[in-house]
Structure formats: structure tokens, C-alpha cells
Design brief:
Helix content: 55-70%
Low-confidence stretches: none
Number of strands: 0
Distance between the termini: 42 Å
Largest sheet: none
Number of domains: 1
Radius of gyration: 14 Å
Number of helices: 5
């Protein structure tokens, strides 16, 4: 069974170099809840939505969206890039 650690490795391979395991762990659970709600409401979407690939796709979308429109706070950016507050 694949989990957030596997998703983190996949996302790193796909070029999202500033992402952290902590970020993936947090968003992993949020996406699973979201997908569970979708599948509960529309069971026909089970095979299309309840997959590891779909979770990774949504993680990458969140990462790209947050990064490209600068929704990461300054503190989050520092954590992601390893910058200190000197």
C-alpha cells in the first residue's frame, strides 16, 4: 500500500524540489478526506478518484498553485527553502 512517503518521493521525482515531507503529510490527509467525500457522494467515481495517482496529482496541483500565486506565507517559504530568519 502506498502512502504519503511514496507520494513525497514521486513529487520530488516530478520536479517539486521545495516540498517537504511534513507538507505532504498534512495535505495527504486533507486530500484523502476530500476524495472520500466525493466517492461517498458519487460511488461511480470510485475507480477514477480513489487512486494513489489522483492523490499525487492533487498534491502537485496544490503545490504548484500555492507556489505560483505566492499563497505560501513568508514563514512557510522559509521552512520550504530552509532559509533562516537571520
Amino acid at each position: 500500500m502506498k502512502g504519503p512517503e511514496d507520494a513525497y518521493q514521486q513529487i520530488l521525482k516530478d520536479g517539486c524540489s521545495q516540498i517537504t515531507q511534513v507538507w505532504v503529510n498534512n495535505h495527504w490527509s486533507l486530500i484523502l478526506w476530500k476524495l472520500a467525500g466525493i466517492v461517498k457522494a458519487k460511488p461511480a467515481l470510485w475507480e477514477a478518484r480513489w487512486t494513489f495517482a489522483e492523490v499525487v496529482r492533487q498534491l502537485k496541483y496544490r503545490y504548484v498553485t500555492l507556489d505560483s500565486i505566492s499563497l505560501f506565507s513568508l514563514c512557510s517559504r522559509c521552512r520550504l527553502t530552509g532559509m533562516s530568519a537571520k
